[in-house]
Amino acid sequence: VEKFVEPTRGVGMELLRLLCEGMGLRPDYFEGDLTGGDVIINVNHYPPCPAPGLTLGLPPHCDRNLITLLLQSTVPGLQVSYKGDWINVESVPNAFVVNFGHLLEIATNGVLKSIEHRAMTNAALARTSVATFIMPAADIPIGPAEELVGEGNPPRYRTVTFDEFMRVYKTVGARRESVEKAFKL
Question: How much is the pTM?
Fold first, then answer.
């Protein structure tokens, strides 16, 4: 597990550095406490389901963290919400799917959006995925980066600690609209 977690976290941190560069933030903006919490690994296994249209592997949700790296199997099942429709995400061997979480949306003042997604079952084949979540420390404030706020671009989200965020997230649910409504100014 360690041989997987350390390099995967490294990929996530490099992606965050590159995102910073693209948005005009200092490259180390997300280092330290903003990514200093636990690295959580979820291994999800979805057995074959004879009626996949009648059940979901995971219901629609946005991730609760900054960034998620998802290693999919070759069996399709991940879908993302796009303009009211669900779009299948192609499985690419030896590649990660990268999801932006709610906290990245808050930290970037909405420049980057969290991705609502779900997992579907397959009628004939089992599907397994491995999700790596990069989490902030529990008690640090997370709010829009000062560099992304200014005249003509006010803060769109209130500053919260990760603990407070998780209390609200667990209460209102993980759907995009619910979390956005809870934290938008």
Answer: 0.91
